[in-house]
Design brief:
This protein has 15 helices and 22 strands. With 456 residues, it is of the alpha/beta class. β13, α10 and β14 form a beta-alpha-beta unit. The longest helix is centred in the N-terminal third of the chain and has 18 residues. It is an enzyme of class 5 (isomerase).
């Protein structure tokens, strides 16, 4: 049946499908998404089946089943893999060479759910690569299919996924490590026990119980408040390292042995160095919010640093276009050529464990090489007119500006390694600020000055 355009556009966003269950999305709606997605991929003639996984949210099993019904109504088969992390679903899409759908709302609160869609080989589906077509069909009403319906089967891929990522990053020979892991009641509680070999590391689990109501804290480690429990847990257990996964476990955040957070930019630099060691002269992708220490290190090591705008669909497309061996974002998404160009928090974690476990220094000492500059982190401000506020900031800094670019929002280079970026949210009345400079004092000074204009 046809659906209101405003509802469809509010739920089918730039990179995925996401909304409040029972208000914006329900079983009938996701069945329509499944049917429209099946028509999209069937028309491309690539595969006759779709793999479907889901997270631990209460609504996920029913929604994923409804999606499967939509897919089979268009004559394609469905392989259900059940509980999965998002990177486990990407693995299944790559290994089975078929399109996929992951039911998750990632780090969003319990009342939300959504779908991350990909083509065969974990290739991204965004607005310009399929979501707009799906939206249009749902608004108009998905046509019926006259042929025979597809079938539904089940397949457990967890152990195959675990073996695959362990083979990509072997930690079997590292020194014994004590690892504190906060799964945030999300899918890390499902995948970490399968991947981390107890003969190599001792895991101290925190919030491993799968619970889509997130009773302990939001499963969004990008917010400092959600790292507090892990920071305390690391020092209490005397762990060598702490790992925090988001709700669907495609992102991984790192805490050192002192309980201090390690920036995703520093992790990007560490992994880039390791990947360039295996694949010399390769391209490494970083988004424009990532610390400039990343491209500087990549160039020093003889690699090619490729700068891109924020967003996984942009990075995945650029991974394919450039043949880049690795890509990293400030939000702790890490992309690997050996993982079909898709992101995997688990692979990033294994790289850090391998780097830490093959030398004797603590993590804090190891990371000094990669944490060159100070940064503000992303600061959001609610504004009525993001364009006007951005222009006001740019004007205020005009006499100190070395250069500007508009790859994503506005990036202002102030020289002497100081820069800031202002970019508007695609979905909310927010202006996002990131600042980097040589010292924390410089960052604080610039941040205060910029926010005084943004929030005036």
């Amino acid at each position: 049946m046809a659906r209101p355009a405003d509802l469809v556009h509010s739920v089918i966003k730039a990179y995925d499908v996401r909304g409040v269950v029972g208000e914006q999305i329900d079983e009938d709606f996701v069945a329509d998404v499944g049917a429209a997605f099946a028509r999209l991929v069937r028309g491309e003639g690539v595969s006759q089946r779709v793999v479907v996984g889901h997270d631990m949210r209460d609504s996920s099993p029913a929604l994923s089943s409804a999606f499967a019904r939509g897919v089979t109504s268009q004559g394609l088969d469905v392989v259900l893999i059940g509980l999965a992390s998002t990177d486990q679903l990407y693995f299944a899409s790559g290994r089975l060479d078929c399109p996929g759908a992951m039911f998750t709302a990632s780090h969003n609160p319990a009342k939300y759910n959504g779908i991350k869609l990909c083509r065969a080989g974990a290739k991204p589906v965004g607005q310009d690569s399929g979501l707009a077509t799906i939206s249009a069909e749902i608004i108009d009403g998905v046509p019926t299919f006259d042929g025979a319906p597809g079938s539904i089967s089940e397949q457990d891929v967890l152990e195959d996924y675990a073996t695959f990522v362990r083979d990509l990053v072997d930690i079997s020979g590292i020194r014994p490590l004590s690892v504190a892991v906060d799964a945030g009641n999300g899918m890390g509680g499902h995948t970490v026990p399968a991947v981390l070999d107890p003969t190599s590391v001792t895991v101290h689990p925190l919030y491993f119980e799968l619970d889509g109501t997130f009773p302990n804290h939001e499963a969004n480690p990008l917010e400092p408040a959600n790292l507090v429990d892990l920071q305390k847990f690391v020092t209490e257990t005397g762990a060598d390292i702490g790992l925090a996964f988001d709700g669907d476990a495609d992102r991984c955040f790192v805490v050192d042995e002192r309980g201090e957070p390690v920036s995703p930019s520093a992790i990007t630099a560490l992994v880039a160095e390791r990947e360039l060691g295996k694949h010399p002269s390769s391209a490494i992708i970083h988004n424009l919010i990532t610390s400039r220490s990343v491209p500087e290190l990549v160039e020093q090591l003889g690699g090619t640093a490729v700068r891109t705008r924020v967003g996984h669909s942009f990075i995945k497309a650029l991974m394919a276009e450039t043949g880049a061996v690795f890509g990293g974002e400030h939000s702790a998404h890490y992309y690997f050529r050996d993982f079909w160009g898709a992101d995997s928090g688990m692979l990033a974690a294994l790289h850090v464990l391998a780097a830490l476990g093959t030398q004797n220094e603590p993590l804090s000492a190891l990371m000094r090489k990669y944490e060159v500059y100070a940064a503000s982190g992303e600061i959001n401000s609610t504004v009525a007119d993001a364009r006007e506020r951005t222009a006001a900031v740019v004007a205020a800094f005009a006499d100190r500006t070395v250069s500007t670019d508009e790859l994503d929002g506005v990036t202002v280079d102030l020289g002497d390694s100081a820069w800031f970026n202002l970019r508007a949210s695609n979905t909310e009345p927010l202006l996002r600020l990131n600042v980097e400079a040589r010292t924390p004092e410089d960052v604080d000074r610039l941040t205060t000055e910029i926010l005084s204009i943004v929030r005036a």
